[in-house]
Design brief:
0% of the residues are buried. It is built from two helices and no strands. It is mainly α. The chain has one domain.
């Protein structure tokens, strides 16, 4: 039971954050992209 939770947690961590970064990168103008990617990365790290 514990191993299932670990496997699901690893799968979610590997798919959730890259998808968020891709959405941010596509929706923000190229001149401000690095700022918003940095904010998304900082927000994701602070939530841990």
């Amino acid at each position: 039971v514990l191993s299932n939770g670990v496997i699901i947690g690893l799968a979610l961590s590997g798919t959730g954050f890259p998808v968020l970064l891709a959405v941010v990168a596509r929706s923000v103008d190229e001149s401000r992209r690095s700022l918003f990617l940095g904010l998304a990365g900082a927000g994701g790290s602070s939530g841990q």
